[in-house]
């Protein structure tokens, strides 16, 4: 599996497994299946309500903890002190010793102080890397006014219809990895019947989903597709054995609308 190297030298797998809106009652089974398929990056969050199940699946998987990269996200923090407490709650829920990547889930509260608390825990060693999610230009620059540690990752809505090229260039300036959430656009905007993607998929004997994921993967943008079905997990993981041509990349580039499909950030 290919990795991207974060700005502190930590390696993060380019293909991850997402658990957004995954009920806790099936999370353990799904994460175990994802690990059996080959995923080594699991993405969760406090507000998903399934950190405990993610941790349990990892512990029961038989894989060494060091081989699995785990991301979680702070939710609802207001400032420095409550964030320290919040981080400890995630460490207890996951119960896997440490967190590989902790993100601020969204730019709310006093996120400069929230991030300062994350820097404290990073220096203590319970977090291997820290970053943010859903920080677009204005909020990212506000954070950088006080941050002592440059965010390793910024996880933002990124898919063929919202390619985030401006943010990608900005992230590269700061050596912050641009990570995609919703790389398949949650099935919105007719992605699975899109004529351009359908044509390209047919030429490679691949699915539309595989082409949409490969488009991001080929740009070294980490992806975290989610599925509760093992066959779909395998499909989403099998994108390393073909390559999109420059012409195909240009065709997909033209699908960019520059607009969110969710109206969150």
Can you describe what's shown?
There is one protein chain. This protein is of the alpha/beta class. It has one domain: Alpha-Beta Barrel (TIM Barrel), CATH 3.20.20.100. Helix content is 40%, strand content 13%. The strands form two sheets. Strands 3-4-5-6-7-8-9 form a seven-stranded parallel β-sheet. It has a two-stranded antiparallel sheet with strand order 1-2. α6 links the parallel β8 and β9. The longest helix is centred in the first third of the chain and has 15 residues. The protein is globular, with a radius of gyration of 18 Å. The model has no long low-confidence stretch (mean pLDDT 97).
Which keywords apply here?
about 260 residues, seven-stranded parallel beta sheet, globular
The helix count comes to: 10
How far the N terminus sits from the C terminus, by CA atoms, comes to 30 Å
Q: Return the CATH topology.
A: TIM Barrel
* Level-2 CATH architecture: Alpha-Beta Barrel
- Given this structure, which CATH class is correct? Alpha Beta
Tally of domains? 1
Specify the oligomeric state.
single chain
Strands ordered across the widest β-sheet = 3-4-5-6-7-8-9
Strands, total number? 9
- What's the shape? globular
Low-confidence stretches: none
Identify the CATH homologous superfamily.
NADP-dependent oxidoreductase domain
Helix content: 40-55%
Outline the biggest β-sheet.
Answer: 7 strands, parallel
- Backbone structural class: alpha/beta
Query: What is the arithmetic mean of pLDDT?
Result: 97
In terms of DSSP E residues, the strand content is 5-15%
Order of helices and strands: EEEHEHEHEHEHEHEHHHH
- Indicate the radius of gyration in whole angstroms: 18 Å
């Amino acid at each position: 599996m290919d990795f991207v190297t974060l700005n502190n030298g930590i390696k993060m797998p380019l293909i991850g497994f997402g658990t957004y809106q995954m009920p806790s009652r099936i999370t353990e089974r799904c994460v175990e299946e994802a690990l059996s398929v080959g995923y080594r990056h699991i993405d969760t969050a406090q507000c998903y309500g399934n950190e405990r199940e993610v941790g349990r699946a990892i512990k029961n998987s038989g894989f060494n903890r060091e081989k699995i990269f785990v991301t979680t996200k702070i939710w609802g923090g207001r400032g420095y002190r409550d964030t320290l407490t919040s981080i400890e709650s995630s460490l207890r829920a996951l119960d896997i010793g440490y967190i590989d990547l902790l993100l601020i889930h969204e730019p709310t509260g006093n996120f400069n102080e929230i991030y300062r608390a994350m820097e404290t825990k990073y220096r203590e060693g319970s977090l291997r890397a820290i970053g943010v999610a859903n920080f677009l230009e204005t909020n990212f620059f506000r954070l950088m006014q006080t941050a002592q540690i440059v965010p390793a990752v910024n996880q933002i809505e990124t898919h063929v219809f919202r390619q985030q090229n401006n943010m990608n260039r900005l992230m590269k300036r700061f050596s912050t990895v641009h990570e995609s959430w919703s790389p398949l656009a949650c099935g919105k905007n007719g992605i699975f019947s899109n004529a351009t993607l359908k044509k390209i998929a047919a030429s490679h004997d691949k699915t539309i989903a595989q082409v949409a994921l490969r488009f991001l993967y080929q740009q070294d943008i980490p992806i975290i597709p989610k599925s509760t079905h093992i066959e779909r997990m395998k499909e989403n993981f099998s994108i390393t054995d073909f390559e999109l041509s420059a012409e195909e990349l240009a065709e997909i580039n033209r699908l960019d609308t520059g607009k969110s499909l969710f109206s969150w950030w």
